Amino acid sequence: MAFDQKIHLCAKGIGDDNITIMIFIFLFAGMFGGIAKAAGGAASTANLMLDIIPHDDMVRGQSIFSGTNSLINTVGTAFSGVMVAFFGVPLIVIINGLSNLYSAASELFIHVPRTVQQGTPVSVKGILHDSKEAVRTIFSDRCLRIFVPSALILNLLAAGPLTLVLPFCMEKGFSVDMYGYLMAVWTAASLICVLTLGIVKLGPKARFWVMALGFTGSVLLFALTYLSTKFVPLCIMAFLASFTNCAGNTIFNASLMLALPEENRGAILGFIDAASVGGTALSAVVYGILGDVFPLYLVFTVGSLLSLAPMLYMCFNPRTREFVLNH
Q1: Which segments within the chain are labelled E, that is strand?
Q2: Whether residue 276 is found in the same domain as residue 167
Q3: Which pLDDT tens digit goes with each residue over 182-238?
Q4: Distance between CA 101 and CA 267 in Å, rounded?
Q5: Is residue 122 part of a domain?
Q6: How many Cα atoms within 13 Å fall on the side-chain side of residue 324?
Q7: Which of 1, 41, 153, 317 has its CA 20 to 30 A from that of 277?
Q8: Could you give the percent of the chain with pLDDT greater than 70?
Q9: Has residue 49 been placed in a domain?
Q10: What is the CATH classification number for the domain harbouring 273?
Q11: What pTM was computed for the model?
């Protein structure tokens, strides 16, 4: 029996042939993507930004980067939809695979300046050592021990609803088309926010108050979003919540990157990224379990309001204010 026949036989034994094979593809793609990300994709990008962007312009620089990235993803998604309509799914999947191979090959010609640890063999022991050093550095720094734990707790409380928007819309009685409109509004708010912050240069006091009020205001606006029963008011609340949350996040992320010690920056960013991914997965599971027992809108609202405590502690802590004003 040929290899492809064995795959189809195995898939049929699990369930629908096409759906099962698609799941296999996504699992393997996710596995290799996760390995690439764990190897330092996000950490490398953040390191590069810190090295080439003046610290006074970190908020604007990160906003321009995020806005450009979001715009490219938005246009790319729309363009891919048009291409699928014209050429069909199989050909687009092949083109996507070839584009990834081209991207990987082009990276072979990128010159990366040597660092102290470059060339060090990658091992489980080394990863655990880096994680241990990252945790030690975080809790020994007067600012990081406020920023990082607060951010991870907020991620745990707030990430779950973002993964369950479709069942939330179905529970509200909205159609799939309305779900698409809601996600478009959500994305547009974030894009407009980062582009605005990329154009407007805020002073230290303005940065602090935009971060503090953006974070706390977004909690209340998200709660109103979840409690809304009509689609248009829900979209308006979602737009404002996404806009204010993005403003707070952009300034906070810029402050967090500036707070990282240069000698251990990569390890800390890697630890934060890994903890965030794990927290997002755990948050989705917890919200999903609670959503089977209670209405999703109620679970989302309670979770959003619970995030207010760590958010107020982080935003209005004197050390946070001092750091944002001085950087």
Answers
A1: none
A2: yes
A3: 888 888 888 888 888 878 888 888 888 998 999 899 999 999 999 998 999 999 999
A4: 28
A5: no
A6: 28
A7: 317
A8: 68
A9: no
A10: 1.20.1250
A11: 0.70
Contacts 24+ apart (CB under 8 A), 236-239: 238/182, 238/185, 238/186, 238/189, 239/185, 239/186, 239/188, 239/189
CA angle 59, 64, 68 (to 5 degrees): 150
CB 220 within 8 A of CB 240: no
Same structural domain, 309 and 234: yes
Q: Please return the burial class of 3, using the count of CB atoms within 10 Å of its CB with bins 0-12, 13-18 and 19+.
A: exposed
HEC letters along 233-268: HHHHHHHHHHHHHHHHHHHHHHHHHHHCCHHHHHHH
Residue 107 maps to a domain: no
Residue among 150, 149, 141, 148 at smallest CA distance from 261: 141
Cα R_g (the chain), whole angstroms:
22
Query: Cα 224 from chain centroid?
Result: 23
For 2, 272, 307, the CA distances from 285, given in Å and listed in that order, are 38, 20, 17
Pair 15, 74 in one domain: no
- Joined together, the tokens standing for residue 226 give 């979840």
On whether both 138 and 35 belong to a single domain, the answer is: no
Rounded to an integer, the average pLDDT of 167-175 is 89
For residue 254, what are the domain limits?
56-89+131-326
Q: Is the dihedral of CA 265, 270, 276, 279 positive or negative?
A: negative
Same domain, yes or no, for 263 and 228?
yes
Question: Which of 186, 184, 191, 178 lies closest to 161 in space, CA to CA?
Answer: 186
